[in-house]
Design goal:
mainly alpha; two-stranded antiparallel ribbon; about 80% helix; globular
Length: about 325
């Protein structure tokens, strides 16, 4: 028992440290870029909100799970448990919404002028801020409505005897899916599945556009033309890798969540494995993005150098 708890604690702690360092480094990159340039490109703005959502998932999931695995059990009250679960769901939903918005925006950006996307090219640049704000409002509101409805139904119908408690380690979550399965599906599951389908479709469009572009330029053999892919092609490939990674982890996580929902008394291993998988994408995604964007470490080092230079200047003056 002690060895398995220690193993799970090490896994969650490793995920938390790696995820926080990766997402905070990427977030610092975008904040520093905004501070120096005065603005962010739409793709960078979406990625900044994606890192915020990923950080929310990691902090609300990885930290409590690590403490619980180290022996600190049930340290959240029922209200605290609901709040942590609320943060997890908002972060998860915003991660889905941001990734989908990123995929759609990049497809519109790289589409040729004679395509069906041409009318959306200019509009997409104008309404990125609006759609990001709409995503935050939507997921914060929906994830408030659902627990409020659960509480109302449970208190009105006195159906405590048919609820089950899910042991999360750091708290006991009361599960009322016997009453609210249709509401949960309508408010959360259906939108998530729809956004995942939209991501898959736009990813297919990006692959098709890149393939046609590659065929179009294959006949050009001039030495003046660089064989290196353009910045837009590299960005598109990076987003494709990100979307494929997200969809893979999301499908795997959904399968495990379905197993927990269909099991009256889910095993300890099933619950912990589900929690580990749910944090995988927020941990991996910043490193996938930094691998494609070589300016991230450069800007981080330049920020460190700039913070040290005033001290060196004062020492030289003295």
């Amino acid at each position: 028992m002690a060895s398995r708890n220690l193993a799970i604690a090490i896994i969650f702690l490793s995920q938390t440290i790696a995820g926080i360092l990766g997402n905070f480094s990427l977030l610092h990159h975008y904040v520093f870029h905004f501070h120096t340039e005065g603005r962010l490109r739409p793709r960078e703005l979406i990625l900044m909100h994606l890192t915020v959502a990923n950080s929310l998932v990691i902090l609300s999931n990885g930290v409590p799970q690590t403490l619980a695995a180290l022996g600190l059990k049930y340290f959240f009250s029922e209200i605290g448990c609901k709040f942590i679960l609320y943060l997890q769901r908002v972060g998860r939903g915003m991660s889905i919404g941001s990734t989908c918005l990123l995929s759609v925006f990049q497809t519109i950006t790289i589409s040729p002028m004679n395509s069906c996307w041409k009318d959306l090219k200019v509009r997409a640049l104008k309404y990125v801020d609006f759609f990001i704000s709409l995503c935050w409002i939507q997921y914060m509101s929906v994830n408030l409505i659902f627990p409020a409805y659960v509480f109302y139904v449970s208190s009105k119908w006195h159906m405590k005897n048919i609820t089950k408690k899910l042991d999360l380690g750091y708290c006991l979550s009361i599960d009322n899916e016997t009453v609210t399965v249709s509401i949960y599906a309508a408010l959360i599951v259906v939108p998530e599945v729809s956004l995942s389908g939209l991501m898959i479709w736009t990813s297919g469009c990006m692959v098709f556009i890149l393939h046609r572009h590659k065929q179009r330029v294959q006949h050009i053999h001039s030495t003046n033309v660089s064989r290196r892919p353009s910045a837009e092609s590299r960005a598109t490939q990076s987003i494709l890798v990100l979307v494929i990674t997200f969809v893979s982890f999301y499908l795997l996580s959904s399968i495990f969540h379905a197993c927990i929902a269909l099991t009256y008394n889910p095993s300890w291993w099933l619950v912990k494995t589900t929690e580990v998988i749910s944090v995988c994408f927020p941990v991996v995604s910043p490193f996938l993005l930094m691998r494609q964007d070589s300016t991230v470490p450069t800007l981080c080092f330049s920020w460190i150098r700039n913070t040290k230079s005033p001290n060196l200047t004062r020492k030289n003056v003295n």
